[in-house]
Write a structure and sequence with these properties.
Blueprint lengths: L2 H13 L4 E6 L2 E6 L40 H19 L2 E4 L4 E4 L15 E2 L4 E7 L2 E6 L4 E6 L5 E3 L4 E6 L2
Antiparallel strand pairs: 1-2, 3-10, 4-6, 4-9, 5-8, 6-7, 8-10
Length: 172
Amino acid sequence: MTFKEITELVKLVAKSNLTEFKVRDGEFEIAIRTDKYSKTKTTQVVSSQQPMLPMAPPMPSSFPQPAAPTAPEPAPAAAAPKKEATKADDTSKYLEVLSPIVGTFYRSPSPDKPPYLKIGDDVAVGDTVCVVEAMKLFNEIESEVAGKVVKVLVEDAQPVEYNQVLFLVDPS
């Protein structure tokens, strides 16, 4: 590592909630400790072959610790799959409008305009249903299904994934 990289690393550790940071790459090793460091705290080893992710700050002792788990109750656990099965059956009759790209979902073309679709609206194949912003480009998303909108599954200005369900449409 160069001196500049080391100083940047020290600055990043100082700004974070970390108390100690160690890295080893071959023969090179560096350890950085902040003024919050205490020898009683446990250390976490990060392999240099895995990507480094920020660690959550340690919880102060003033927060209540979670209680030890008790024996699981079988009745609610057995009832949960039935509820999920009925939900799956309810939505299985609907067609899905999927996001063809990753980006930010918007229901209307601009903040001062009404949304393209509301629950209860009819939609035809080729109708614009929403806008997904990707890399500063606003892409109009067209429906590939026809029917009546029964549910909007994404909030306005929420990030969406590729093939994420945006709307449920009743084809009947």
